[in-house]
Design a protein that fits this description.
mainly alpha, 16 helices, Growth Hormone, Chain: A, 398 residues
Length: 398
């Protein structure tokens, strides 16, 4: 009875439950083994993988604002369905050819569509949940649990045929597309029918908000490290000697570490000021990167597993408050645009982190790049708050 009173059994939430379940299962299959597929199945070098991984973010810098504006000006749900359908088609094209140019082009097209689905669905969920007694962390935790479980078993499912990840992803995204069809049409609400001011006026109002600038700055800082981590952790694990199952287990640990964070995120961090959150996350991110450096130097799978336990307090704390705070500070008529803008900043970070990071990894080694990033993050997370405090004093901290 208590569960029903909380609103969690509202039938209108079922499409969101289904979407976050299967979409994150699809993400787990690709994120876990995509770059291993590039290296071991196709024979690409770390530098080539870095180039492939960075092309997508370049496309996203231009594509994501377009999708965000289009969804705000037309229909969020329809735009999301189009993006997901395109993602499914492109996923099935991946294993059809194996040359570097073909894979780079397909990867860029795939990123152009797939990177925008997450921010857009988050915007729909956040806007819809404003009318419910359910917090976003509850919905997001469903995705985290699904990701963790899939990461744990995907190694068993694909065996040594890494091309299967694209077929699994297409199936999961197909189910997610079906769920989106049943999501509420927010454009039919009374608020959505109100005439929106010109986009440039809304963006100017947004960029005058010091909180928004602070949030976007943190996205750039942590985006550099997380994109390199996601791009090369699997390859590092294979260097250490990890099997497909052990690679999946590492991703399972990182995803599982998000669950307690999502359960208590508002109690533990809800009253923290944004710059204080930046320093907390930066501190633990530095420790995590140093651990990954040590694990690479010593070839220790146990240290990698231990570092994955910090994923929740680093990635998830930053992601959750970025999404929630941007939604709170964005005008109602550009909420999707703002989430897409945050994704653009992440794409810029990915371009640097994966592109330049991949080149450095090929020259210096993956572990050395982790150490460089640790120094970079530690410096920024204590220098950047000081800069913001000097410029804006306590205003930005409120």
């Amino acid at each position: 009875m208590r569960l029903r009173d909380s609103g969690l059994l509202d039938k209108e939430l079922i499409p969101f439950y289904v979407y976050y379940t299967v979409a994150f299962m699809g993400a787990a299959t690709v994120i876990t083994f995509l770059n291993i597929y590039f290296q071991e199945y196709l024979g690409f070098t770390l530098s080539q993988i870095g180039v492939i991984t960075s092309i997508g973010p370049v496309i996203s810098i231009f594509a994501q604002p377009m999708w965000g504006v289009l969804s705000d000006r037309t229909n969020k749900r329809v735009v999301l369905m189009i993006l997901m359908a395109a993602t499914i088609v492109v996923s099935l094209l991946f294993p059809l050819h194996y040359t570097l140019v073909y894979v780079a082009i397909i990867s860029a097209i795939h990123t152009m569509f797939s990177r925008s689905t997450g921010p857009l669905c988050d915007a729909i969920a956040l806007q819809f949940l404003e009318t419910k007694r359910v917090k976003f962390n509850t919905i997001r935790m469903i995705g985290t649990i699904s990701y963790a479980l899939m990461a744990a078993v995907v190694g068993h499912l694909i065996g040594d045929n890494f091309a299967r990840i694209f077929y699994f992803n297409a199936v999961f995204m197909g189910i997610a597309l079906f769920a989106v069809f049943y999501m509420p049409d927010l454009q039919k609400t009374a608020a959505a029918k109100l005439a929106a001011p010109p986009l440039k006026d809304s963006l100017w109002e947004l960029f005058r908000n010091k909180m928004v600038l602070c949030i976007l700055a943190t996205t750039l800082v942590f985006g550099l490290t997380m994109t390199f981590y996601h791009a090369f952790l699997g390859i590092q694990l294979r260097y250490i000697g990890a099997s497909e199952v052990q690679v999946g287990r590492a991703l399972f640990i990182s995803a599982a570490s998000e669950i307690p964070v999502l359960l208590f995120v508002n109690k533990l961090f809800g009253k923290r000021k944004p710059l204080h959150l930046l320093m907390i996350v930066g501190f633990f991110m530095t420790i995590r990167l140093v651990m990954l450096f040590i694990s690479d130097a010593q070839g220790s799978l146990a240290i990698v597993y231990a570092s994955q336990l910090l994923h929740g307090i680093t990635f998830m704390v930053h992601f959750y408050f970025t999404v929630v705070l941007l939604n709170a500070h964005a005008p109602v008529h550009i909420k999707s645009t703002v989430q897409s803008l945050n994704a653009v900043i992440m794409a810029v970070a990915a371009l640097i982190g994966a592109g330049i990071g991949g080149h450095l990894a090929g020259q210096l080694g993956i572990g050395t790049v982790y150490l460089i990033l640790a120094v970079f993050v530690f410096a920024l997370c204590f220098v950047l708050p000081g800069v913001f405090w000097l410029v804006y004093r306590e205003k930005v901290l409120d």
